[in-house]
Design goal:
Strand content: under 5%
Low-confidence stretches: none
Helix content: over 70%
Distance between the termini: 19 Å
Number of helices: 14
Number of strands: 2
Strand order of the largest sheet: 1-2
Amino acid sequence: MSNLKAKFLEVYSVLKSELINDPAFEFTDVSRQWIERMLDYNVPGGKLNRGLSVVDSLKLLKEGGELTDDEVFQSCALGWCIEWLQAYFLVLDDIMDGSHTRRGQPCWFRLPKIGMIAANDGIILRNHIPRILKKHFRVKPYYVDLLDLFNEVEFQTAHGQMIDLITTHEGEKDLSKYSLGIHRRIVQYKTAYYSFYLPVACALLMAGENLESHADVKNVLIEMGTYFQVQDDYLDCFGDPEVIGKVGTDIQDFKCSWLVVKALELSNKEQKKLLHENYGKDDQECIAKVKELYNALDLQGVFAEYESSSYDKITKSIEAHPSKAVQAVLKSFLAKIYKRLK
């Protein structure tokens, strides 16, 4: 494990200890143990890319200058706020989607004696974020900007989730409601803001920058987030479940996936009919027919082409940025996701 990851996990233990001993609530041993188990199960289990990116980005913005111990701790704490936000979204998302596995283990609400208590756990995860920010950033000149940033991004993500959920209802009635434009909006709001823009925005605030003067950075990161989600949609169907840690269910869940949107765009009348008849059915035969159609339309080739042109377009946008330090941050993000397998 890298030094940074080990340090990052140490900060998690500190934050967790502060939260389960928060003087604003009288914890019993039972409630304290519940929160601790819930946090350990849901917060640190992923790849931690979003959180670690805050620290990496701050280092790059300081152009080789070493971070002080305080800066390392604080950038880790902000990174964990993003991981907490992610955990909150995923716990509730899994309930809404009726999912079974997450990160290679059963979803939290699927565990014995958890069930719908998980909905309240999601709310608690959300409420931990301002507790962490208050304790560690209250005296910082950018404290209000941080609160504002997290509120803004949560607002955008929740509305992205809403478009996703209601579009799925529409799509169930009429598959042709799914389009690239709709897919892009869902992705931008549901994923790109919190996964890509938020970590860099946190680092920019810590580096003393004004976010309003970095609209171009936001745009590049949203592009990257869109590309990342298209990869996710692709891996849901063509990835190895052993590698990605979950079995893809986009086809039977009627998701407005990039693959189905592309298939609708490329298929003839007969193929469209096949899609309409089989997409969104939780039946292995129907799923196999959709996958066969995806192969007949060579969606793997179409994706490879999309991946290559997206990479070129994003690289050009990054190289147009006047600051070499900002370029380095953006390039490090792109390098992490380009041609990923999980």
